[in-house]
């Protein structure tokens, strides 16, 4: 993972140096077909997420707008996730609201971002929004929801989430099991 992250950052800085040296201009990139640019920019956004480099994220976001690929669902999803990773929740929410397809991993990104900043009520609000939108949750959703329950000492809600863990077959998943133990201990309900 570390070497992958360094490699992405190296590609990102090499790319920016090409743009600054005028070897590659935005006009040249605009001549490329948009569908061919999407994987490249998705990789650059991943690099911004993993390095949590907000300035570079904003540069890449601006370029996606200039190139006309910012409305692509995949790029928009990457932008939401990247802004959430950089703790820019206002921007992440705005982009999220304009995203046509809102897959589970996008909801997970927002839930995780709010929870990581100890904004547990907001985290649970996003989870509620996910449920109301009838989006399925996965094994990555519930540990973060349980962390939010623990942060609020919301034992009853945590018990309901525990039921969802069991009903959906996530009971043997290590992250879910650890989150359950953590939630019950923080709520003072160890038996």
Short summary:
The protein has 191 residues and is an all-alpha fold.
Explain this structure to me?
With 191 residues, the protein is mostly helical. Helix content is 75%, strand content 0%. The chain has eleven helices and no strands. It has helices at residues 2-20, 26-31, 34-51, 54-67, 73-85, 89-98, 104-116, 120-132, 141-151, 155-167, 174-186. α5 (73-85) packs parallel to α7 and α9 (141-151) runs parallel beside α11. It is elongated. The N and C termini lie far apart (39 Å). Residues 1-6 have low confidence and may be disordered.
- Low-pLDDT parts are 1-6
Mean of residue pLDDT values: 85
Structural class: mainly alpha
Distance between the termini: 39 Å
Helix content: over 70%
Oligomer: single chain
Order of helices and strands: HHHHHHHHHHH
Report the strand count: 0
Strand residues, percent = under 5%
Total of helices = 11
Backbone CA Rg = 19 Å
Q: What is the overall shape?
A: elongated
The major pleated sheet works out as: none
Comma- or semicolon-separated keywords:
75% helix; 191 residues; single chain; mainly alpha; elongated
Helix and strand arrangement:
Blueprint: H1 2-20, H2 26-31, H3 34-51, H4 54-67, H5 73-85, H6 89-98, H7 104-116, H8 120-132, H9 141-151, H10 155-167, H11 174-186
